[in-house]
Amino acid sequence: MQANLFLNLLKQLESSKNGIIYLQKERIEKSELLFVKSLENAGIIKQSNPLTDIMCDGCHQQCIMPVQFREIKGNPTAYIICDKRDNIGTVPVDFSRLEIITFSLAGLALWLAIALPTDRTPEEIEAGSIFYLGKTNLSDVWYDLLLTNKDVNILACYQEIKKSANPLVITLSSPKNHDYLPCVAIHTIMLFQGANITFSKELLTAALLPKAKTKIGAKAKHDWLAYRKQFDDIISDLGLPGIDEPDLRNQAALENKLIEWGEKNFGEAPAPSTMRSHVAKWLK
């Protein structure tokens, strides 16, 4: 569930004009509150200035009205003064309705710089679009909102990136078929385990490995990065295999889920014995 919620937030962020989206807390589903809290604890989303105009619930018209503030006997109160109808007057407003949180590229960039970790705080190269995260023991890491191959080509022209010994670009959506820079989509390396959010060093390292040269017409038999991502999503949703989990009672059930997923998405899947060896390694 967490992975799906995160993907939804990323899609909203992709369509934003300034790299920021605003979320009204009262509209967050109860089932999403723990995940949103984990994002807050990680510093990925932050509290913003409260709303000053909201939809009035004093009647069925649901007008957007300004909120008034006043202190009564030492207690702050919020209310709306209705000037649309004679029989409404003052409508009290719960402060929880005014709470706003922000989800931004800058917040993700800062979290990545700390989690990797890098040698610096992120530097915003282009407003709400491109951040230089710094150097890790793996590479120089860049974070960017990329949607097309053309954008990758433009990014490859940056002098700062040309000077990087081993650049890696982390994107919201990773473009296909580019020849300039290794790219990895952020949702493919982030792991959601209960209320904790981490990232997979294994998948991040794999993105930097040079692609093996194959004979003309040949291609890799199975996309193990995709299988590992699906493995992480299953564990995030259901937890580790155990007799208390009816949908995932043992390792064999987990292997079967991955095989079924592979057959559905790729038309074929690895042999059970091959899948078993990979799943055993991932569970460790």
Structure description:
The protein has 284 residues and is an alpha+beta fold. The protein has nine helices and 15 strands. The chain is 35% helix and 23% strand. α7 crosses α8 and α8 (251-266) packs across α9 (272-283). It is globular.
Secondary structure blueprint with pairings:
Blueprint lengths: L1 H14 L4 E5 L8 H9 L3 E3 L5 E3 L8 E3 L1 E5 L2 E7 L8 E4 L6 E5 H11 L7 E4 L3 E6 L4 E5 L4 H8 L2 H5 L3 E5 L11 E3 L4 E4 L2 E4 L1 H8 L15 H15 L12 H16 L5 H12 L1
Parallel strand pairs: 11-12, 12-13
Antiparallel strand pairs: 1-8, 2-8, 3-4, 5-6, 6-7, 9-10, 10-11, 14-15
Beginning-to-end CA distance, first to last residue = 23 Å
- In terms of structural class, how would the helical and strand content be classed? alpha+beta
Q: What average pLDDT do the residues reach?
A: 80
Query: Could you spell the SSE succession in H and E letters?
Result: HEHEEEEEEEHEEEHHEEEEHHHH
Radius of gyration: 24 Å
Summarize the structure.
With 284 residues, this protein is of the alpha+beta class. The chain has helices at residues 2-15, 33-41, 105-115, 149-156, 159-163, 201-208, 224-238, 251-266, 272-283, and strands at residues 20-24, 45-47, 53-55, 64-66, 68-72, 75-81, 90-93, 100-104, 123-126, 130-135, 140-144, 167-171, 183-185, 190-193, 196-199.
Brief descriptors of the model:
284 residues, alpha+beta, five-stranded mixed beta sheet, three-stranded antiparallel beta sheet
